[in-house]
Design brief:
The chain has about 200 residues and is an alpha/beta fold. It has four helices and seven strands. A five-stranded parallel sheet has the order 3-7-6-4-5, sandwiched between helices. A hairpin with a 5-residue loop joins strand 1 and strand 2.
């Protein structure tokens, strides 16, 4: 009898003492207006795609706001525009794990390399007969890797000069991205890729 999406949807933020292993993150509403929520530690990698003004950023702000309140979650990532990451995160524990802006493409590459190194270290520390990191703490958080407009970053990287004999920056970014996609889940990383 009505459109449940025709009204503003308010997102309740989890209490600060909750863990990502127990917090339900609101991700949508169904056709009857019922909330659809999930535990982000059980989530797969996520890709958000849509045209400009389709609601990608609003959805991302909502999900990231819920996750950022959890002490055992770290919001890392790359955002050439600096609108999704960057200024809203200044002064937080998340900020040092973020690269923003389009002037320094190498900062984005370095961040992805740092995330790959963290992933490798976590995998190396897994106990025998354990194939994934499943318990998260403030000292060993679930890392949500936000990749905002990866295609735009790759275009910028294709024009970035590199020393002779070194792989092009675009190829370095693709290599790090591929590693994070294929191996990150077992190391307690969840990718959130946002693209037009």
């Amino acid at each position: 009898t009505g459109d449940p999406l025709a009204v503003d949807v308010t997102t309740a933020l989890p209490a600060r003492d909750h863990s990502v292993s127990g917090a339900q993150v609101l991700v949508a509403r169904d056709e009857l207006g019922r909330p659809l929520a999930m535990q982000w530690d059980q989530a797969p990698h996520t890709c958000v795609q849509g045209a400009t003004r389709s609601g990608k950023s609003v959805w991302c702000y909502s999900v990231l706001a819920q996750l950022a309140r959890l002490d055992d979650v770290l919001i890392a990532g790359s955002d050439p525009s600096g609108l999704l990451l960057g200024r809203p995160w200044a002064g937080t524990r998340h900020h040092e794990w973020q690269a923003t802006g389009s002037r320094d493409v190498l900062a984005h590459r370095d961040l992805l390399d740092r995330l790959v190194a963290e992933m490798d270290a976590r995998i190396a520390e897994l106990p025998a007969r354990q194939d994934k990191l499943a318990v998260f703490t403030p000292a060993r958080p679930l890392i949500v890797v936000v990749l905002e407009e990866l295609a735009g970053l790759l275009r910028l990287a294709s024009t970035t000069p590199t020393p002779k004999g070194e792989a092009k920056v675009r190829e370095q970014l693709l290599h790090a991205f591929g590693r994070l996609v294929s191996e990150g889940h077992k190391a307690g990383m969840r990718l959130l890729v946002v693209t037009q």
